[in-house]
Predict the 3D structure of the following.
Amino acid sequence: MTIMRKMIAEFIGTFTLVFLGCGAAVMAGVHDILGMMGISFAFGLALIGMAYGIGPISGCHINPAVSFGAVVAGRMSVFEMIRYWIAQVGGACVAALLLLIMVKGRASGYDVGANGLGQNGWGAGYLGEYTMISALLFEVIATFLFVIVILGATSPGTPASMAGLAIGLTLVVIHLVGIQITGVSVNPARSIGPAIFSGNVTAIAQLWLFIVAPMIGAGLAGIAFRAGILADRPVGEEVAA
């Protein structure tokens, strides 16, 4: 029952992040009332809410890269990570599907091909039209910094009550910097759901980057904590008597 509760929490948390964050991106495209600032805060505030809502249950990873970083840091087992991944990708896909159904109900119609579902991308025709190298670098670096904040804010001895706020505000800043570059992923599940249900061939073809790059960044962050380079002691090191 414990792992089932965690999976349900991760499903709901990832659903919330994608439905509200990507929903804000869709609404910005349709009504042009939110802008980049509004989208950035939608993602960050959704994460803050879930951090306090489901954090005590599952740790509120709601991101396969975060779970991978936790495994590398020695804070989670591989088997538990796989279960988290299933719940996270499932929540993201259901959120994208329901978002698609919702926007299709717009009286004047909604062109998913033209406006999308908040999917990530790069290159000609996508937001700032940055290159693949720029997209790759941004996603690796941004995920590395994001997971550093997450692992640090949830380390023993840190004020637990402030962790959700610190993590959510970091996601806001990451979006402010990166929306024009990739639309900001730092989360493979957040990229998978909208790409699949957007029906956009380019988004699906580019999906690999938004899986690989966040995993690299999260893995590097996990190594930094596992090796004791940052706050944590190296895995297996005992406290001196």
About this structure: The chain has one domain: 2-105+117-226. Residues 225 and 231 are 7 Å apart (CA to CA).
